[in-house]
Design brief:
Layout: E1 6-9, H1 25-36, E2 42-44, E3 49-56, E4 59-66, H2 73-83, E5 91-97, E6 105-109, H3 117-126, E7 132-137, H4 147-151, H5 157-180, H6 183-193
Parallel strand pairs: 1-4, 1-5, 5-7
Antiparallel strand pairs: 2-3, 3-4, 6-7
Helix pairs in contact: 2-3, 5-6
């Protein structure tokens, strides 16, 4: 199994108005993680990113939030990965997922973008699909033409409650992955916690 050396949270991180939106759940996950383990995220202009280090289980893992719009995430991640010589296969990308209901979070390794613009851009820039993803469910709007407005708006109180509960379980799964380098064990734990 590939060990994790960098965890990236996707979102629209150019403007504060996007912070609490569904599309920013990935970057909010990194803020959660950094708060839980007292990691300070530092804005590094030349790398166009916020970076911190999670030191746990005798390991040092970079936490990254690209300072970019979602559909340009890949460029920032590529610059940082290249600078620190981190391979794509050692990166975990955390992002929102329309195909899962709020409260459902799943791991995935490899595969296509599923229409997610951030993932699409990463695949395009790296010219590779082999990286880990942690997909946080946000559900879909009833009208498929409302997707843009939906992802750029905030979850309801109930949705946020379900998402917060699921994130707690996903943090436990993530720590299993980091500690053991055993992706399947982490995947099995997380998927056993999902109620859908």
């Amino acid at each position: 199994m590939n060990n994790i050396k960098m965890i990236v949270g996707l979102g629209n991180n150019i403007d504060e108005k996007f912070i609490q939106t569904r599309h920013n759940i990935g970057s909010n996950y990194i803020f959660n993680l950094s708060n839980k383990f007292n990691v300070k995220l530092k804005k590094i202009k030349k790398l166009n990113a916020n970076i911190g280090y999670l030191k746990i289980f005798d390991k040092k893992i970079m936490l990254l939030i690209p300072n970019s719009f979602m559909n340009n995430s890949g460029k920032s991640i590529f610059i940082v990965a290249n600078f620190y010589k981190i391979l794509l296969k050692n990166i975990l990308i955390v992002h929102d997922e329309l195909d899962y209901l709020p409260g459902i979070i799943k791991f995935k390794y490899g595969g296509g973008s599923g229409g997610h613009n951030g993932i699409k851009n990463i695949i395009k820039i790296f010219n590779d699909t082999l990286f880990y993803r942690l997909r946080i469910g946000i559900g879909r709007p009833r009208n498929k033409f409302q997707v843009n407005n939906f992802v750029l708006s905030s979850p309801t109180i109930i949705e946020q409650k379900n998402i917060n509960f699921a994130i707690k379980n996903s943090l436990k799964a993530l720590l299993i992955f980091i500690k053991t380098n055993n992706y399947n064990r982490a995947l099995n734990y997380l998927h056993s916690q999902n109620n859908g």
